[in-house]
Amino acid sequence: MITRRKLCPLISSILEKSQPCFCWRAMKQQRMLRTYLSAENPINGEANLSPPKFYQRLNCPKNILAPMVAQSDLPFRLMCEQLYNVDLSYTQMIHAYNFIKPGCETFRTNHLDVYPHSITTDVLFGNHDREDLIVTPSQIYAMKGIDHHEIEAARSRILSVIAKSKGIHDVSELKINTKPTVVQIAAHDPDVAVEAAMVILERSGSMNSYNNGDTCTVAGIDLNLGCPQSIARKGRYGSFLHDEHPDLTYKVLQKLRSVLPQHIGVTAKIRLPPTQADADAGRLGSISSLESGPQTIDERMRCLIDCGVDLITVHGRTRFENKVAVGVADWESVRQCVESARTYSGDANFPIISNGGIEFGEDVQKCFGETNASGVMSSEGILELPSLFRSGEEEIITAKLLLERQLGFAELYLDYATIFPPLPGSLGTKGGSFNVIRSHLFKFLHRYLEENPDLRSLLGKQEVNTIKQSRDLVSELKTRYCNLDEEQLRMMKSWDKESSWYRRHRGTNIQPARPSEMSLEERKHMMKMRLRKRQTIV
Protein backbone atom coordinates (compact mmCIF):
# COMPACT_ATOMS: atom_id res chain seq x y z
CA MET A 1 0.00 0.00 0.00
CA ILE A 2 1.29 3.44 -0.95
CA THR A 3 1.03 5.88 1.94
CA ARG A 4 0.79 9.68 1.64
CA ARG A 5 4.38 9.91 2.82
CA LYS A 6 5.53 7.69 -0.05
CA LEU A 7 3.12 9.21 -2.54
CA CYS A 8 4.22 12.83 -2.21
CA PRO A 9 7.86 12.38 -3.33
CA LEU A 10 6.55 10.27 -6.19
CA ILE A 11 4.13 12.99 -7.29
CA SER A 12 6.84 15.64 -6.96
CA SER A 13 9.11 13.60 -9.21
CA ILE A 14 6.36 13.23 -11.78
CA LEU A 15 5.63 16.95 -11.76
CA GLU A 16 9.29 17.89 -12.15
CA LYS A 17 9.93 15.48 -15.01
CA SER A 18 6.65 15.87 -16.87
CA GLN A 19 6.41 18.01 -19.96
CA PRO A 20 4.04 20.98 -19.77
CA CYS A 21 0.50 19.95 -20.66
CA PHE A 22 -2.08 22.26 -22.12
CA CYS A 23 -5.31 20.35 -21.88
CA TRP A 24 -7.39 22.22 -19.31
CA ARG A 25 -8.27 19.00 -17.50
CA ALA A 26 -4.64 17.89 -17.34
CA MET A 27 -3.50 21.30 -16.13
CA LYS A 28 -6.17 21.24 -13.45
CA GLN A 29 -4.96 17.82 -12.30
CA GLN A 30 -1.40 19.15 -12.02
CA ARG A 31 -2.64 22.12 -10.02
CA MET A 32 -4.53 19.81 -7.65
CA LEU A 33 -1.42 17.70 -7.15
CA ARG A 34 0.65 20.77 -6.31
CA THR A 35 -2.02 21.89 -3.87
CA TYR A 36 -1.84 18.46 -2.25
CA LEU A 37 1.86 19.05 -1.65
CA SER A 38 1.44 22.62 -0.41
CA ALA A 39 1.73 23.98 3.10
CA GLU A 40 -2.01 23.49 3.51
CA ASN A 41 -1.47 19.71 3.28
CA PRO A 42 1.70 18.97 5.30
CA ILE A 43 2.85 15.39 5.60
CA ASN A 44 3.24 14.14 9.18
CA GLY A 45 3.43 17.73 10.41
CA GLU A 46 6.27 18.68 8.06
CA ALA A 47 5.42 22.24 7.02
CA ASN A 48 6.18 23.59 3.55
CA LEU A 49 8.89 26.21 4.10
CA SER A 50 8.33 28.05 0.81
CA PRO A 51 8.21 31.87 1.05
CA PRO A 52 4.88 33.68 1.42
CA LYS A 53 2.77 34.27 -1.65
CA PHE A 54 4.19 36.65 -4.22
CA TYR A 55 1.67 39.48 -3.77
CA GLN A 56 1.93 39.43 0.02
CA ARG A 57 5.71 39.34 -0.23
CA LEU A 58 5.51 42.66 -2.09
CA ASN A 59 3.36 44.13 0.72
CA CYS A 60 0.20 43.93 -1.40
CA PRO A 61 0.90 46.85 -3.76
CA LYS A 62 -2.13 48.94 -4.68
CA ASN A 63 -0.66 51.60 -6.97
CA ILE A 64 1.26 50.22 -9.93
CA LEU A 65 3.29 51.84 -12.71
CA ALA A 66 2.76 50.07 -16.03
CA PRO A 67 5.41 48.70 -18.38
CA MET A 68 5.83 51.22 -21.21
CA VAL A 69 8.44 51.10 -23.96
CA ALA A 70 10.93 53.97 -23.56
CA GLN A 71 8.82 55.46 -20.74
CA SER A 72 9.18 53.11 -17.76
CA ASP A 73 12.78 54.24 -17.40
CA LEU A 74 14.71 54.27 -14.13
CA PRO A 75 14.47 58.04 -13.39
CA PHE A 76 10.71 58.06 -14.00
CA ARG A 77 10.19 54.93 -11.91
CA LEU A 78 12.19 56.38 -9.02
CA MET A 79 10.35 59.70 -9.21
CA CYS A 80 6.96 57.97 -9.04
CA GLU A 81 8.05 55.58 -6.28
CA GLN A 82 9.80 58.09 -4.05
CA LEU A 83 7.33 60.96 -4.36
CA TYR A 84 4.00 59.84 -5.76
CA ASN A 85 3.01 56.66 -3.90
CA VAL A 86 3.72 54.08 -6.58
CA ASP A 87 4.06 50.73 -4.77
CA LEU A 88 5.25 48.54 -7.65
CA SER A 89 6.92 49.42 -10.96
CA TYR A 90 7.30 47.49 -14.19
CA THR A 91 10.20 48.07 -16.54
CA GLN A 92 9.81 48.63 -20.23
CA MET A 93 9.34 45.47 -22.29
CA ILE A 94 12.49 43.55 -23.19
CA HIS A 95 12.53 41.31 -26.28
CA ALA A 96 13.64 37.96 -24.91
CA TYR A 97 15.30 36.75 -28.11
CA ASN A 98 17.25 39.98 -28.60
CA PHE A 99 18.42 39.68 -25.01
CA ILE A 100 20.09 36.29 -25.53
CA LYS A 101 21.03 36.09 -29.21
CA PRO A 102 24.71 36.14 -30.26
CA GLY A 103 26.25 39.61 -29.97
CA CYS A 104 23.51 40.77 -27.61
CA GLU A 105 25.68 42.55 -25.03
CA THR A 106 24.93 46.02 -26.42
CA PHE A 107 21.21 45.27 -26.39
CA ARG A 108 21.43 44.10 -22.79
CA THR A 109 23.37 47.19 -21.73
CA ASN A 110 20.91 49.50 -23.49
CA HIS A 111 17.76 47.95 -22.02
CA LEU A 112 18.16 46.48 -18.54
CA ASP A 113 18.07 49.34 -16.01
CA VAL A 114 17.45 47.41 -12.80
CA TYR A 115 20.04 47.76 -10.05
CA PRO A 116 20.24 46.69 -6.40
CA HIS A 117 18.15 49.06 -4.30
CA SER A 118 21.13 49.90 -2.12
CA ILE A 119 23.01 51.25 -5.14
CA THR A 120 20.26 53.57 -6.42
CA THR A 121 19.66 54.88 -2.89
CA ASP A 122 23.36 55.48 -2.28
CA VAL A 123 23.71 57.23 -5.65
CA LEU A 124 20.85 59.55 -4.74
CA PHE A 125 22.46 60.42 -1.40
CA GLY A 126 25.88 60.82 -3.03
CA ASN A 127 27.35 57.78 -1.27
CA HIS A 128 27.96 55.81 -4.47
CA ASP A 129 29.53 56.91 -7.73
CA ARG A 130 26.75 57.55 -10.25
CA GLU A 131 29.23 56.85 -13.04
CA ASP A 132 28.60 53.15 -12.41
CA LEU A 133 25.11 53.66 -13.84
CA ILE A 134 26.28 55.57 -16.92
CA VAL A 135 27.17 52.72 -19.23
CA THR A 136 26.27 53.94 -22.75
CA PRO A 137 27.49 56.74 -25.05
CA SER A 138 23.87 57.85 -25.35
CA GLN A 139 23.69 58.67 -21.64
CA ILE A 140 26.95 60.61 -21.83
CA TYR A 141 25.65 62.61 -24.80
CA ALA A 142 22.44 63.52 -22.95
CA MET A 143 24.57 64.82 -20.07
CA LYS A 144 26.63 67.10 -22.30
CA GLY A 145 27.42 70.45 -20.66
CA ILE A 146 26.38 69.44 -17.14
CA ASP A 147 29.06 69.98 -14.51
CA HIS A 148 29.50 68.65 -10.98
CA HIS A 149 27.78 71.64 -9.37
CA GLU A 150 24.64 71.12 -11.46
CA ILE A 151 24.59 67.44 -10.54
CA GLU A 152 24.83 68.26 -6.84
CA ALA A 153 22.14 70.92 -7.21
CA ALA A 154 19.80 68.37 -8.82
CA ARG A 155 20.51 65.89 -6.03
CA SER A 156 19.83 68.52 -3.38
CA ARG A 157 16.52 69.53 -4.99
CA ILE A 158 15.32 65.91 -5.17
CA LEU A 159 16.19 65.17 -1.55
CA SER A 160 14.57 68.40 -0.39
CA VAL A 161 11.33 67.61 -2.23
CA ILE A 162 11.24 64.06 -0.82
CA ALA A 163 11.95 65.32 2.70
CA LYS A 164 9.23 67.96 2.42
CA SER A 165 6.72 65.36 1.21
CA LYS A 166 7.45 63.31 4.35
CA GLY A 167 7.36 66.27 6.71
CA ILE A 168 11.09 65.98 7.47
CA HIS A 169 13.03 69.22 7.99
CA ASP A 170 16.54 67.75 8.13
CA VAL A 171 17.54 65.86 4.96
CA SER A 172 20.14 63.91 6.95
CA GLU A 173 17.25 62.17 8.75
CA LEU A 174 15.63 61.10 5.49
CA LYS A 175 15.18 57.39 4.82
CA ILE A 176 13.90 56.18 1.46
CA ASN A 177 11.84 53.01 1.30
CA THR A 178 12.63 50.90 -1.75
CA LYS A 179 9.85 49.54 -3.94
CA PRO A 180 9.79 46.25 -5.88
CA THR A 181 10.30 46.01 -9.64
CA VAL A 182 8.95 43.55 -12.20
CA VAL A 183 10.74 43.11 -15.53
CA GLN A 184 8.47 42.57 -18.52
CA ILE A 185 9.58 40.37 -21.41
CA ALA A 186 8.12 39.54 -24.82
CA ALA A 187 8.52 35.98 -26.04
CA HIS A 188 6.74 33.15 -27.84
CA ASP A 189 9.38 30.45 -27.34
CA PRO A 190 9.37 28.88 -23.85
CA ASP A 191 13.10 28.12 -23.85
CA VAL A 192 14.01 31.62 -25.05
CA ALA A 193 11.76 33.18 -22.41
CA VAL A 194 13.34 31.15 -19.63
CA GLU A 195 16.90 31.81 -20.77
CA ALA A 196 16.28 35.55 -21.02
CA ALA A 197 14.60 35.63 -17.62
CA MET A 198 17.48 33.76 -16.00
CA VAL A 199 20.02 36.18 -17.49
CA ILE A 200 17.96 39.13 -16.23
CA LEU A 201 17.87 37.67 -12.73
CA GLU A 202 21.58 36.88 -12.80
CA ARG A 203 22.63 40.32 -14.04
CA SER A 204 20.44 42.09 -11.49
CA GLY A 205 21.60 39.94 -8.57
CA SER A 206 18.14 38.49 -7.98
CA MET A 207 18.76 34.74 -8.20
CA ASN A 208 19.08 34.19 -4.45
CA SER A 209 17.88 37.45 -2.97
CA TYR A 210 14.85 36.28 -1.03
CA ASN A 211 15.64 36.53 2.65
CA ASN A 212 13.38 37.13 5.64
CA GLY A 213 10.66 38.82 3.60
CA ASP A 214 12.96 41.26 1.81
CA THR A 215 12.19 41.89 -1.84
CA CYS A 216 15.01 41.31 -4.27
CA THR A 217 16.10 43.65 -7.05
CA VAL A 218 13.80 41.96 -9.55
CA ALA A 219 10.68 40.69 -7.80
CA GLY A 220 9.10 39.06 -10.83
CA ILE A 221 9.08 38.40 -14.56
CA ASP A 222 6.02 39.52 -16.53
CA LEU A 223 4.99 38.14 -19.91
CA ASN A 224 3.64 40.78 -22.28
CA LEU A 225 0.27 39.52 -23.51
CA GLY A 226 -1.34 42.93 -23.89
CA CYS A 227 0.50 44.94 -26.55
CA PRO A 228 -1.97 45.76 -29.38
CA GLN A 229 0.56 47.32 -31.78
CA SER A 230 0.96 45.76 -35.23
CA ILE A 231 4.66 45.15 -34.54
CA ALA A 232 3.56 42.69 -31.84
CA ARG A 233 1.83 40.56 -34.46
CA LYS A 234 5.02 40.41 -36.51
CA GLY A 235 7.03 39.50 -33.42
CA ARG A 236 4.39 37.04 -32.16
CA TYR A 237 3.96 38.58 -28.74
CA GLY A 238 1.51 40.76 -26.86
CA SER A 239 -2.24 40.43 -27.34
CA PHE A 240 -1.73 38.79 -30.74
CA LEU A 241 0.06 35.86 -29.15
CA HIS A 242 -2.63 35.45 -26.50
CA ASP A 243 -5.60 35.88 -28.85
CA GLU A 244 -4.35 33.81 -31.76
CA HIS A 245 -1.95 31.31 -30.16
CA PRO A 246 -3.18 30.69 -26.60
CA ASP A 247 -1.65 27.21 -26.50
CA LEU A 248 1.80 28.70 -27.12
CA THR A 249 1.12 31.41 -24.56
CA TYR A 250 0.48 28.89 -21.82
CA LYS A 251 3.55 26.85 -22.74
CA VAL A 252 5.70 29.93 -22.15
CA LEU A 253 4.07 30.71 -18.80
CA GLN A 254 4.25 27.13 -17.56
CA LYS A 255 7.91 26.88 -18.48
CA LEU A 256 8.71 30.14 -16.71
CA ARG A 257 6.92 29.07 -13.56
CA SER A 258 8.45 25.59 -13.52
CA VAL A 259 12.05 26.81 -14.00
CA LEU A 260 12.39 30.20 -12.29
CA PRO A 261 13.22 30.33 -8.57
CA GLN A 262 10.13 30.23 -6.38
CA HIS A 263 10.91 33.61 -4.83
CA ILE A 264 10.56 35.18 -8.28
CA GLY A 265 6.98 35.84 -9.31
CA VAL A 266 5.67 34.98 -12.77
CA THR A 267 2.99 37.41 -13.91
CA ALA A 268 1.01 38.11 -17.06
CA LYS A 269 -0.37 41.38 -18.42
CA ILE A 270 -3.32 40.67 -20.69
CA ARG A 271 -6.23 42.33 -22.46
CA LEU A 272 -9.84 41.27 -22.52
CA PRO A 273 -10.40 38.38 -24.93
CA PRO A 274 -11.91 39.14 -28.33
CA THR A 275 -15.52 38.21 -28.91
CA GLN A 276 -17.02 35.75 -31.33
CA ALA A 277 -18.14 38.77 -33.36
CA ASP A 278 -14.48 39.73 -33.76
CA ALA A 279 -13.72 36.24 -35.03
CA ASP A 280 -16.70 36.19 -37.40
CA ALA A 281 -15.57 39.53 -38.84
CA GLY A 282 -12.13 38.07 -39.58
CA ARG A 283 -10.33 40.40 -37.16
CA LEU A 284 -8.34 37.66 -35.45
CA GLY A 285 -6.31 36.39 -38.36
CA SER A 286 -5.49 32.70 -38.12
CA ILE A 287 -7.06 31.04 -35.09
CA SER A 288 -6.48 27.46 -36.12
CA SER A 289 -5.29 26.74 -32.58
CA LEU A 290 -8.74 27.64 -31.25
CA GLU A 291 -11.13 24.93 -32.38
CA SER A 292 -14.14 26.54 -30.74
CA GLY A 293 -13.32 30.18 -31.41
CA PRO A 294 -12.01 32.89 -29.06
CA GLN A 295 -11.64 32.20 -25.38
CA THR A 296 -14.17 33.46 -22.88
CA ILE A 297 -13.11 35.36 -19.79
CA ASP A 298 -13.58 32.25 -17.65
CA GLU A 299 -11.50 30.10 -20.00
CA ARG A 300 -8.72 32.65 -20.13
CA MET A 301 -8.54 32.98 -16.35
CA ARG A 302 -8.57 29.21 -15.83
CA CYS A 303 -5.72 28.64 -18.25
CA LEU A 304 -3.59 31.38 -16.72
CA ILE A 305 -4.11 30.07 -13.20
CA ASP A 306 -3.39 26.50 -14.27
CA CYS A 307 -0.07 27.75 -15.62
CA GLY A 308 0.84 28.79 -12.09
CA VAL A 309 1.01 32.57 -12.57
CA ASP A 310 1.28 34.56 -9.35
CA LEU A 311 -0.52 37.70 -10.52
CA ILE A 312 -2.58 38.80 -13.52
CA THR A 313 -2.98 42.34 -14.82
CA VAL A 314 -6.07 42.88 -16.97
CA HIS A 315 -6.32 45.84 -19.34
CA GLY A 316 -10.04 46.50 -19.61
CA ARG A 317 -10.06 46.69 -23.40
CA THR A 318 -9.62 44.28 -26.28
CA ARG A 319 -6.70 44.69 -28.63
CA PHE A 320 -8.98 46.39 -31.15
CA GLU A 321 -9.65 49.27 -28.74
CA ASN A 322 -6.50 51.23 -29.37
CA LYS A 323 -5.49 54.78 -30.30
CA VAL A 324 -8.44 56.55 -31.99
CA ALA A 325 -10.64 53.52 -31.29
CA VAL A 326 -9.58 53.45 -27.64
CA GLY A 327 -13.07 53.49 -26.14
CA VAL A 328 -13.89 53.40 -22.43
CA ALA A 329 -12.18 50.84 -20.22
CA ASP A 330 -14.59 47.98 -19.49
CA TRP A 331 -14.34 47.72 -15.72
CA GLU A 332 -17.32 45.36 -15.56
CA SER A 333 -15.40 42.80 -17.61
CA VAL A 334 -12.36 43.33 -15.38
CA ARG A 335 -14.59 42.55 -12.40
CA GLN A 336 -15.67 39.34 -14.15
CA CYS A 337 -11.98 38.44 -14.51
CA VAL A 338 -11.46 39.07 -10.79
CA GLU A 339 -14.42 36.93 -9.77
CA SER A 340 -13.56 34.15 -12.22
CA ALA A 341 -9.92 33.93 -11.15
CA ARG A 342 -10.72 33.91 -7.45
CA THR A 343 -13.49 31.37 -7.80
CA TYR A 344 -11.45 28.97 -9.91
CA SER A 345 -8.25 29.31 -7.87
CA GLY A 346 -10.09 28.92 -4.59
CA ASP A 347 -8.17 31.96 -3.34
CA ALA A 348 -10.47 34.82 -2.35
CA ASN A 349 -7.50 37.18 -2.54
CA PHE A 350 -5.91 36.02 -5.79
CA PRO A 351 -4.23 39.21 -7.07
CA ILE A 352 -5.76 40.79 -10.15
CA ILE A 353 -4.59 44.25 -11.20
CA SER A 354 -6.90 46.51 -13.20
CA ASN A 355 -5.37 48.61 -15.99
CA GLY A 356 -7.06 51.24 -18.14
CA GLY A 357 -9.33 54.25 -17.67
CA ILE A 358 -7.23 56.07 -15.04
CA GLU A 359 -6.92 59.80 -15.76
CA PHE A 360 -7.16 61.38 -12.29
CA GLY A 361 -6.73 60.27 -8.70
CA GLU A 362 -10.49 59.97 -8.25
CA ASP A 363 -10.56 57.35 -11.02
CA VAL A 364 -8.33 55.09 -8.93
CA GLN A 365 -10.92 54.77 -6.17
CA LYS A 366 -13.73 54.35 -8.69
CA CYS A 367 -11.79 51.54 -10.31
CA PHE A 368 -11.27 49.75 -7.00
CA GLY A 369 -14.98 50.02 -6.28
CA GLU A 370 -16.18 48.80 -9.67
CA THR A 371 -13.66 46.02 -10.28
CA ASN A 372 -12.82 44.75 -6.78
CA ALA A 373 -9.25 44.43 -8.09
CA SER A 374 -6.27 44.03 -5.78
CA GLY A 375 -4.48 46.99 -7.34
CA VAL A 376 -4.72 49.61 -10.06
CA MET A 377 -2.14 50.10 -12.81
CA SER A 378 -1.74 53.35 -14.72
CA SER A 379 0.05 53.81 -18.02
CA GLU A 380 -0.91 56.81 -20.17
CA GLY A 381 -2.49 58.76 -17.34
CA ILE A 382 0.57 58.66 -15.10
CA LEU A 383 2.86 59.84 -17.89
CA GLU A 384 1.11 63.20 -17.86
CA LEU A 385 0.13 63.19 -14.19
CA PRO A 386 2.77 61.27 -12.17
CA SER A 387 1.06 62.27 -8.92
CA LEU A 388 -2.31 60.65 -9.65
CA PHE A 389 -1.71 57.95 -7.00
CA ARG A 390 -0.82 60.45 -4.30
CA SER A 391 -3.32 60.53 -1.45
CA GLY A 392 -5.64 63.50 -1.69
CA GLU A 393 -4.52 64.41 -5.20
CA GLU A 394 -7.56 65.97 -6.80
CA GLU A 395 -8.18 67.39 -10.22
CA ILE A 396 -6.60 70.85 -10.44
CA ILE A 397 -9.19 73.63 -10.07
CA THR A 398 -7.14 76.66 -11.13
CA ALA A 399 -5.27 77.30 -14.34
CA LYS A 400 -2.26 78.72 -12.51
CA LEU A 401 -1.88 75.63 -10.31
CA LEU A 402 -2.21 73.42 -13.37
CA LEU A 403 0.61 75.30 -15.09
CA GLU A 404 2.85 75.17 -12.02
CA ARG A 405 2.18 71.48 -11.54
CA GLN A 406 3.06 70.45 -15.08
CA LEU A 407 6.19 72.62 -15.18
CA GLY A 408 7.15 71.16 -11.80
CA PHE A 409 6.89 67.61 -13.14
CA ALA A 410 9.19 68.49 -16.03
CA GLU A 411 11.78 70.16 -13.79
CA LEU A 412 11.74 67.35 -11.24
CA TYR A 413 12.08 64.65 -13.90
CA LEU A 414 15.06 66.49 -15.40
CA ASP A 415 16.65 66.44 -11.93
CA TYR A 416 16.15 62.67 -11.70
CA ALA A 417 17.46 62.22 -15.25
CA THR A 418 20.55 64.22 -14.28
CA ILE A 419 21.34 61.79 -11.46
CA PHE A 420 20.09 58.67 -13.26
CA PRO A 421 20.38 59.26 -17.04
CA PRO A 422 17.92 56.86 -18.74
CA LEU A 423 19.19 54.03 -20.89
CA PRO A 424 18.47 54.46 -24.62
CA GLY A 425 16.41 51.28 -24.86
CA SER A 426 14.89 50.92 -28.31
CA LEU A 427 15.28 54.62 -29.21
CA GLY A 428 18.75 54.53 -30.73
CA THR A 429 22.32 54.08 -29.58
CA LYS A 430 23.33 57.75 -30.02
CA GLY A 431 20.40 59.94 -29.04
CA GLY A 432 18.21 57.29 -27.45
CA SER A 433 18.69 58.41 -23.86
CA PHE A 434 17.58 61.93 -24.61
CA ASN A 435 14.74 60.63 -26.79
CA VAL A 436 13.37 59.01 -23.63
CA ILE A 437 13.64 62.36 -21.83
CA ARG A 438 12.14 64.20 -24.80
CA SER A 439 9.14 61.88 -24.81
CA HIS A 440 8.44 62.54 -21.13
CA LEU A 441 8.67 66.31 -21.64
CA PHE A 442 6.16 66.16 -24.47
CA LYS A 443 3.68 64.45 -22.15
CA PHE A 444 4.22 66.65 -19.09
CA LEU A 445 3.98 69.83 -21.17
CA HIS A 446 1.69 68.71 -24.00
CA ARG A 447 -1.04 71.31 -23.56
CA TYR A 448 1.47 74.19 -23.31
CA LEU A 449 3.68 73.09 -26.18
CA GLU A 450 0.55 73.02 -28.34
CA GLU A 451 0.21 76.74 -27.61
CA ASN A 452 3.88 77.36 -28.35
CA PRO A 453 4.57 75.61 -31.67
CA ASP A 454 8.05 77.11 -31.94
CA LEU A 455 9.15 75.42 -28.71
CA ARG A 456 7.36 72.23 -29.68
CA SER A 457 9.23 72.28 -32.97
CA LEU A 458 12.56 72.84 -31.22
CA LEU A 459 11.95 69.84 -29.00
CA GLY A 460 10.47 67.69 -31.76
CA LYS A 461 13.06 68.38 -34.44
CA GLN A 462 15.89 67.38 -32.13
CA GLU A 463 17.34 70.88 -31.98
CA VAL A 464 17.09 70.32 -28.24
CA ASN A 465 18.98 67.12 -27.49
CA THR A 466 20.58 67.41 -24.04
CA ILE A 467 19.28 67.77 -20.50
CA LYS A 468 20.89 71.22 -20.24
CA GLN A 469 19.09 72.44 -23.37
CA SER A 470 15.85 70.98 -22.01
CA ARG A 471 16.15 73.06 -18.87
CA ASP A 472 16.51 76.16 -21.00
CA LEU A 473 13.39 75.23 -22.97
CA VAL A 474 11.34 74.64 -19.81
CA SER A 475 12.61 77.94 -18.42
CA GLU A 476 11.56 79.75 -21.60
CA LEU A 477 8.12 78.17 -21.45
CA LYS A 478 7.74 79.27 -17.84
CA THR A 479 8.76 82.83 -18.76
CA ARG A 480 6.04 83.06 -21.42
CA TYR A 481 3.30 82.36 -18.87
CA CYS A 482 4.70 84.00 -15.74
CA ASN A 483 2.96 87.36 -16.23
CA LEU A 484 -0.48 85.92 -17.04
CA ASP A 485 -3.14 86.03 -14.34
CA GLU A 486 -5.78 83.38 -13.64
CA GLU A 487 -8.39 84.92 -15.93
CA GLN A 488 -5.97 85.12 -18.85
CA LEU A 489 -4.81 81.53 -18.33
CA ARG A 490 -8.40 80.30 -18.27
CA MET A 491 -9.00 81.89 -21.66
CA MET A 492 -6.28 79.79 -23.25
CA LYS A 493 -6.68 76.41 -24.89
CA SER A 494 -4.36 74.79 -22.35
CA TRP A 495 -7.08 75.15 -19.69
CA ASP A 496 -9.46 72.97 -21.71
CA LYS A 497 -9.57 69.37 -20.45
CA GLU A 498 -9.58 68.14 -24.02
CA SER A 499 -6.13 69.66 -24.58
CA SER A 500 -4.42 67.15 -22.30
CA TRP A 501 -2.11 64.50 -23.68
CA TYR A 502 -4.23 61.76 -22.11
CA ARG A 503 -7.26 62.92 -24.08
CA ARG A 504 -5.53 63.32 -27.42
CA HIS A 505 -7.41 60.23 -28.69
CA ARG A 506 -10.29 60.61 -26.26
CA GLY A 507 -11.29 64.20 -26.97
CA THR A 508 -13.59 63.25 -29.81
CA ASN A 509 -16.94 61.56 -29.50
CA ILE A 510 -16.45 60.02 -32.92
CA GLN A 511 -15.91 56.36 -32.18
CA PRO A 512 -16.49 53.32 -34.37
CA ALA A 513 -19.74 51.51 -33.58
CA ARG A 514 -17.70 48.44 -32.77
CA PRO A 515 -13.97 48.57 -31.90
CA SER A 516 -12.17 47.14 -34.88
CA GLU A 517 -8.99 47.19 -36.86
CA MET A 518 -9.83 50.07 -39.15
CA SER A 519 -8.77 50.34 -42.75
CA LEU A 520 -6.31 52.99 -43.89
CA GLU A 521 -9.15 55.12 -45.26
CA GLU A 522 -11.06 54.85 -41.99
CA ARG A 523 -8.00 55.92 -40.03
CA LYS A 524 -7.47 58.89 -42.35
CA HIS A 525 -11.09 59.92 -41.88
CA MET A 526 -10.81 59.71 -38.10
CA MET A 527 -7.66 61.83 -38.17
CA LYS A 528 -9.34 64.47 -40.33
CA MET A 529 -12.27 64.69 -37.93
CA ARG A 530 -9.93 65.07 -34.95
CA LEU A 531 -7.98 67.84 -36.70
CA ARG A 532 -11.21 69.59 -37.66
CA LYS A 533 -12.37 69.57 -34.05
CA ARG A 534 -9.04 70.94 -32.83
CA GLN A 535 -9.22 73.78 -35.36
CA THR A 536 -12.74 74.56 -34.16
CA ILE A 537 -11.52 74.81 -30.54
CA VAL A 538 -8.73 77.19 -31.57
Automatic annotation (TrEMBL):
Task: Please give the Pfam families that the UniProt record associates with this protein.
Answer: Dus
Q: What is its EC number?
A: 1.3.1.88
Which parts of the sequence belong to the DUS-like FMN-binding domain? 165-396
Q: Which cofactor does it need?
A: FMN
Q: Which GO terms describe its biological process?
A: tRNA dihydrouridine synthesis
The alphabetized UniProt keywords are: Flavoprotein, FMN, NAD, NADP, Oxidoreductase, tRNA processing
Q: Which domain of life is it from?
A: Eukaryota
What the entry lists under SUPFAM superfamilies is as follows: FMN-linked oxidoreductases (SSF51395)
Reactions accelerated catalytically:
5,6-dihydrouridine(17) in tRNA + NADP(+) = uridine(17) in tRNA + NADPH + H(+); 5,6-dihydrouridine(16) in tRNA + NADP(+) = uridine(16) in tRNA + NADPH + H(+); 5,6-dihydrouridine(17) in tRNA + NAD(+) = uridine(17) in tRNA + NADH + H(+); 5,6-dihydrouridine(16) in tRNA + NAD(+) = uridine(16) in tRNA + NADH + H(+)
Alphabetical list of InterPro entries matching this protein:
Aldolase_TIM (IPR013785), DUS-like_FMN-bd (IPR035587), tRNA_hU_synthase_CS (IPR018517)
Name the enzyme's class.
oxidoreductase
- List, alphabetically, the PROSITE patterns matched: UPF0034 (PS01136)
The GO terms this record gives for MF are: oxidoreductase activity
User: What family, per the record?
Assistant: Belongs to the Dus family. Dus1 subfamily.
What protein name does the entry list? tRNA-dihydrouridine(16/17) synthase [NAD(P)(+)]
* Source organism per UniProt: Discostella pseudostelligera
Upper lineage: Eukaryota, Sar, Stramenopiles, Ochrophyta, Bacillariophyta
